[in-house]
Amino acid sequence: MKYAVGVDVGGTNTRVALIDDTFQIVKKEQFLTDREDVWDTIFKIKDAADRFQVQTQGVGISCPGPLDLMSGTVLTPPNLPGWHNIAIERELSKALGVPVFLENDANLACLAEAAAGAGRDVRFVQFLTISTGVGAGFCMDKKIYHGSRGYAQEVANSILWKNGPSQGNLKEGSVEAVSSGTAIVKRAEEAGLSVKHAGDVYQLALGGNLKAQEIMEDAYEYLSNFIGILYGVLDPDLFVLGGSVALKIPGFIKEIQNRTEQKVYPALKENICIVPAQLGEDCGLIGAAYLAMQKSGL
User: Fold this and answer.
1) Looking at the domain covering 118-278, what would its CATH class be?
2) Of 35, 45, 41, whose CA–CA distance to 12 is shortest?
3) Please, which residues bridge with residue 100 across strands?
4) Stretch 80-103: mean pLDDT, rounded?
5) With respect to CATH, is domain 3-104+281-295 assigned 3.30.420.40?
């Protein structure tokens, strides 16, 4: 049996897991991320890996972006001010004494679903997470597609709606500013609705609230437009949807499937296959460990 370590660094918590070559999580630890001091978190990752007491092939690590994947560097994540411009691959590898590989969280989720989840039996897998934001990844033959500079599938700022809603630093009318959970809630609050999450907006729409219905209609319509575009560009075998909005709102994926079928050429309609992610919150850890195994030649 071969093993690798997956690390998922978040703005609040960091999770570290020992994962075997059948994609099973053997051990897992979680602790608070030190947002101001990267070295504190590096030492805690090392301590967790040491406690696993197993020789590993390497470590895959997911960090908030933006990232420079070519050099293995965390650039300027807004929620981790003490991590800016840290060559995390090099520094963590020094601490652990094994190879370390940095990757985008959505890419790792896609890799996990392609290797061990919904896409394990096909070659071309497109992944999209609809939650706080919108993230994406694309895998071919269980390998991540990065593009020329490592920024392939940075889709959040894809503009679909002229003079549409805005959100943060995103351009007006971008897919994340319309269809993410944050966008749905923001638009509802601006309309005077009392909501805490996208599911509340869905329930109000179901109950006949016209403004909530309009917001959900926009989320469905522009997201299915975008997925139709990705089908035309990439022709995946499978489109995997993850994230709380996609997985927790009743009928969300079926609605997107039905609408996307109407957005493509009639001859391509039968190719549309949109399914829920299977691996849940551990997909990033599994993807990170599998990446380390791939890079180590397993």
Assistant:
1) alpha beta
2) 35
3) 59
4) 96
5) yes
